[in-house]
Each structure stands twice: as C-alpha cells, then as structure tokens.
Amino acid sequence: MKTKPTDPELAAWCAALVPPPAVDVVPEGYFTAVQLAEKLGRARASVGHWLTDAVAAGKVETKKFRVAAGNRGVYPTPHYRIKK
Fewer CB within 10 Å, N or C, the chain? Predict the structure, then answer.
C-alpha cells in the first residue's frame, strides 16, 4: 500500500477548519446497555428489554451523552442509572 508523505501545513489547515467533535463527560453512575450487559454477563438484547421495562416502570432513568462510538465517530448514546 502506498502512503502519501505527511504535509504539516495541510494538517494545520484541516485542524483549523474542522474542529474536533465535542464529547460529553459521563457522570458517575451512568452506564450504557453494553456496559451493563458485560457487568451482568447477559446478552445485550436481554439487558435492553430489562432496561426498557425498568424505564417504563420509573425505576431507571435514561439520558443521552455524546461519546466516541468506535470508528464511527461521536454519537449520542443512551446511558442509564438507577433512580434515587
């Protein structure tokens, strides 16, 4: 695979024209469905159903935070925490 030489001036222009996407700081106690599935050792789909039911029952609250989503970039992702 051929690689192009790096142009520092071009990199500076790209950084100036396209600001980095804003990422939110997730407060303590909020978890994504994937994180909860890993902690519980259950399937993501099962945890998703439980979370939907818990939110509907008022036991769990949800809030979207803009976080890095792998190679996709920054996306609003639902996070959950138990209501106090």
Answer: N
**The model's pTM:** 0.74
Containing structural domain, residue 51: 22-82
Question: Mean pLDDT over residues 75-84, rounded?
Answer: 94
Task: Give the number of domains in the chain.
Answer: 1
pLDDT of 7 reads: 81
In a domain, 6, yes or no: no
Rg (alpha carbons) of the chain, rounded to whole number: 19
Torsion, CA 16, CA 21, CA 26, CA 30, rounded to 10: -170
Q: Cβ distance 75 to 69 under 8 Å?
A: yes
Q: Using one digit for the tens of pLDDT, what is the confidence trace for 50-74?
A: 999 999 999 999 999 999 887 788 8
